[in-house]
Amino acid sequence: MTHDALVEKGDPLTLTAVISAVREAFIDFHHGDFELPVRVSFGDGRILTMPVHHRPSGTAVVKVLRIEPDRDPAISGVIVWTAESGEAVFDAAELTAIRTGAASGVATDLLAAPDAAVMTIIGAGAQAYHQVAAVLAVRPIREVRISVRTPSRADALVARLQETHPDVRTTVVNDLALALRDSDILTCATSAMTPVFDADDLPARIHINAVGSYRLDMRELPAEAFADADVVIDSWDAVREEAGDLMPALATGHLHEASVSELGARLYDNTGPRASRTIFKSVGLAIQDWAAASVMAGQTATTSLEQTDDDPSFLR
């Protein structure tokens, strides 16, 4: 099986490896081992370019991404991984989904209750499967609740989860407020411009992964959700430029900078939750692409003899 097929099928060994790689990448980022420019966007945020260089290994990744929310799939593009030994080229849609899910898996493992059993996800698009799969990889989830504006859009996600995780109950919910009352984990993976839930519906103890908004005009979380929460982010430089949920919460006083810390620092210090409500706000960093591509490129290299010279997925 090629690396592309492994990613597409959500191979659990591959996902576990990527979660581990993303965890180590955030620690390396904390130590200053990456050259990481803030990503450049064009066309009102629809075209993104994300380069990164890992100094210790001399490897690098460049991603060019196009996002069209009304298109299926919404994400298209390529990721180029380069090392002294050669280059590998990956489809950006699946690798972005798996690396984004892996980061949520890392944050969930650090911050969520060890006995978390019920997960609710808002959104059933391209990011949703790997968001759920990564949480299932780090917590003993028994039930996944899916909330979408159009229930039929969740059919593919339900079918995929039932195929790969048959022991986990998967349901599409109509009453989000009711679903949230006893949820242990909430993941928001939408392209919303306004908050997708009411903070009053949250239980006293919950971990939230907020990964959908990546522009200052996008917003999934209400400002009130940040109040008294332990908030972990991927990077201050990135969220100041792109976190449409977090920055308004700072501006209104619902959140204070002292309550916010970067994921790499928390992983390095192995600091668990500091409050009953924890939030991981991610806008996505190229170090995640580097980590996922490094894992997949390693798999590609081990099987490269089975590929032909005209196979575009691995360029020697």
Describe this structure in words.
The protein is an alpha/beta fold and 316 residues long. The strands form 2 sheets. An 8-stranded parallel sheet has the order 9-8-7-10-11-14-12-13. Strands 1, 2, 3, 4, 5, 6 and 15 form a 7-stranded antiparallel sheet that branches. The model is unreliable at 1-10 and 302-316 (pLDDT under 50). 35% of the residues lie in helices and 23% in strands.
Structural class: alpha/beta
Order of helices and strands: HHEEEEEEHEHEHEHEEEHHEHEHE
Helical content class: 25-40%
Please, how many domains?
A: 2
CATH-defined fold name of the largest domain: Rossmann fold
Which runs of at least 5 residues are low in confidence (pLDDT < 50)? 1-10, 302-316
Largest sheet: 8 strands, parallel
CATH class of the largest domain: Alpha Beta
Number of strands: 15
At CATH level 2, the architecture of the largest domain is: 3-Layer(aba) Sandwich
Strand order in space, largest sheet: 9-8-7-10-11-14-12-13
Q: CATH homologous superfamily of the largest domain?
A: NAD(P)-binding Rossmann-like Domain
Whole-angstrom Rg = 18 Å
Mean pLDDT: 89
Distance, first to last CA: 19 Å
Total of helices: 10
